[in-house]
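Hello forum,

I keep getting stuck at the same step: I have a sequence, I want structure tokens, and every attempt I make locally crashes halfway through. Rather than fight my setup again tonight, could one of you with a working pipeline run this one for me? It's a single chain of 428 residues.
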Amino acid sequence: MSTAMRIENVGKSYRVWGSEWLRVASWFGLPVRPKEEHWVLRDVSFTIAPGESVGIVGRNGAGKSTLLKMITGTTQPTEGRITRGGRIAAILELGMGFNVELTGRQNAFHSAGLLGYSQQEIESVMPAIEAFAEVGEYFDEPVRTYSSGMQVRVAFAVATAFRPDVLIVDEALSVGDAYFQAKCYKRVQEFTALGTTLILVSHAIGDIVKHCDRVIFIKDGGVFADGTAQEVSNLYLDELFGKKAASLQETVDVVSEGMEGGSEDVFHTRPYYNAAEHRWGQGGARIVDYLIASEGQEFPARIDSGARTSFYVKIAFDRDFDSIVPGFLVKTLEGLFLYGTNSFLASEGRAGIAVKAGEVIVCKFTMPLDLNEANYLVSLGVSSGDPLAELTPLDRRYDSIMLDVSRGMQFWGMMDLKADFELVGASS
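Reply #2:
Ran it on my machine without issues. Output:
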């Protein structure tokens, strides 16, 4: 099997017909036109290789769920072709396929049967399904008595009772508790390590970056971007908080021209600068320079793990703002968020800073870099508005700085949470 899945020029439209005769005529391919036609997806094409972990992101209504329903075969495409390889297990809409009058056990038999497993095969894994779901005596109660989290527990346990060739999860885990989410993702990781293809739809960018190597961004009914998790997650964040007025390139052009008063952009001349940064924002402010100081040195070649380090950020303003809030974020090279803060959070509720057009300010974030030996990405930002309400991004420079943290492993993992140890008792 060379591909787990191939999507070729797929489209889906929902049609309103003037009469039932016209609807029936359309089934036979006769040249009839619908009264109304709404295209949810159009000209969608991509290929997923066996064993790939692929995330799908997009705003509500972008067509993500419709795409997954076509992939699983519960909805047929209006145009195009979908080629599937191997057995697919999917958790789509909450409780989809469950009969609320049947018990969890009965629904497990029914759902597993629809996946193509025999009665004997299902009976052999039923104890494992019941144990994984952890719903106790409710397993033999009608599903109508279940909470949404309990439905997800049973649905996931059934879908993963046998390792599928392709596992599709669409937001369902978002309603579960943190303990069960961790348990589910552990099973997903076990399956992907054995070659299962994962397709994950989630609005939680952290989950997408952590569990997916590749991300497909659906926008306006088509594939807007298809690339690495880090690259596409930045584009998706841009879409969510987005830039208005000028395009990204227009913003870059304005910054490149420079201004008097120390506001010329000099990022590209600084150590640690990452030319692959992702820059966006609504304008009115520009992050133009930075300085990193640690252990009495400016821009040290490497920063020791745990060293107290200051990040100075210079920001130029083209408009008046009653309240601006600078921000700071650290991520792994894979794009996993490790730590983020802003001027409001880091100064115990300091109010936003008022600035005038033409003004240039320098702010500083200082912290111990309690990170293990590795390379990390730093993102800088400045927003306007009420820190307790909604903030408007003015200039965001994602992944603009690459840090090299050294001195070997002093703890396991990525971050030092400063645990203390003491022996509080002993007996002989």
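The longest strand covers residues 391-406. If your local run keeps crashing, start a new thread with the error log.
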